[in-house]
Design brief:
The structure holds 2 protein chains of 2 kinds. By secondary structure, chain A is mainly alpha-helical. Chain A contains 9 helices and no strands. In chain A, helix 3 crosses helix 5 and helix 5 packs antiparallel against helix 6. The chains are: A mainly alpha, B mainly alpha. Chains A and B meet through helix 1, helix 3, helix 4, helix 5 and helix 7 of A and helix 2 and helix 3 of B.
């Protein structure tokens, strides 16, 4: 396995694991509060839709000329990656609420319990599970397609995604609880760095740039993006500390915003 | 689902919270293409623009206020629902 293929597999695995943890929390909440059968039907239906989407769009993407593919996919990945990284930086700096799977599980479960369960098929459990898996899965499908098409290896990307889903599912079934101990916020930071780096690399290459050392420049690029992101976290924290010195009000942020 | 809602959903999925970052991605790749077409290999341009845009976007999101006390004590977003960062920008919980 080449370095680029390994990076692809790691990126897809991490991104997929994060999304799978989020979907698992919601399905678990609905399943335990209501009926497992309908919740699992929802999971199955959403998985089918996602599989059809990847099977239909994968060949279409890989048939594009490489230059066009890299510009389009690089641009999309860069857009996506910058958004992930922005949120991850805000979370790491304490300026945005972190994902708390236990809190989300409690909220989802309370909501599921508040809706009366009717006789027959539980449409509520089906709909909530379907929506959770489809929405979280769409991001995974996007990442699998873009990474896989660019490396002309959608199969490897899909395998990495499947491995992540199985790992999360295995851990979740063993624990029978929300996977609150998965370092979700840290993983999102890493995924943001990887998506941004790959987006920059492929986008620039598709635009005609020649990276010094070719694919070997990908690792230093990832390092530069990661260091820059960490510096931005430190900058926001420092500004917060300076602000706290000037204004001791705990609501300073909200007052200024 | 109306066509308008589909367009909005696609916009939200691809562009996300800050449209300026999406614009920066387009500018980064577009400018790289222009400079490369003129001769030099401008591999350095895309990372420069992308990281500068990210820093700019973050400055807008946390206007001279920095982190909230405790971080985790921010209003916790509802699963799958919107969260609000300190700029008041609604964001998905991704």
């Amino acid at each position: 396995m080449s370095g680029a293929e390994l990076s692809l597999a790691i990126s897809v695995f991490l991104a997929c694991a994060v999304e799978a943890v989020e979907a698992f929390t919601i399905v678990l909440a609905v399943g335990t509060a209501r009926r497992w059968r309908a919740a699992l039907y929802g999971v199955g239906a959403a998985t089918l839709v996602l599989a059809v989407l990847i099977a239909a769009l994968g060949p279409a993407l890989t048939s594009l000329p490489l230059g066009v593919l890299r510009v389009v996919v690089g641009g999309l990945l860069l857009t996506f990656g910058l958004q992930w990284l922005r949120k991850a930086i805000l979370r790491a700096a304490g300026a945005k609420a972190k994902h708390d799977e236990e809190a989300i599980f409690a909220t989802e479960r309370a909501e599921a319990e508040s809706v009366p369960v009717t006789a027959g098929f539980d449409g509520y459990a089906f709909a909530i599970s379907f929506k959770a898996v489809l929405l979280e899965g769409l991001e995974v499908a996007f990442i699998v397609l873009t990474f896989g098409a660019n490396q002309h290896d959608v199969g490897l990307a899909a395998a990495a995604a499947a491995a992540a889903i199985l790992a999360v599912l295995g851990a979740g079934l063993a624990l029978r609880a929300p996977l609150a101990r998965v370092p979700e916020n840290g993983m999102k930071f890493v995924v943001g760095v990887l998506l941004t780096s790959f987006g920059i690399f492929w986008g620039a290459e598709g635009a005609g740039a020649n990276w010094p050392g070719g694919e070997a420049s990908l690792a230093p690029l990832v390092a530069v993006v990661a260091l820059a992101a960490l510096a931005m976290v430190a900058e926001i924290k420092a500004r917060g500390a300076a602000q706290a010195t000037v204004s001791p009000s705990p609501n300073a942020a909200e007052e200024i915003a | 689902m109306t066509p308008r809602r589909i367009v909005l959903a696609v916009w939200d999925f691809v562009v996300g919270d800050d449209w300026r970052l999406a614009l920066a991605a387009v500018v980064a790749i577009g400018l790289t293409a222009v400079v490369c077409a003129l001769g030099p290999s401008a591999w350095w341009l895309a990372p420069l623009i992308a990281l500068a845009a990210l820093r700019w976007s973050l400055r807008g999101a946390v206007p001279a206020a920095g982190p909230s006390p405790g971080g985790r004590n921010d209003p916790t977003p509802k699963a799958g629902g919107p969260a609000v960062d300190q700029s008041g920008v609604q964001s998905s919980p991704k």
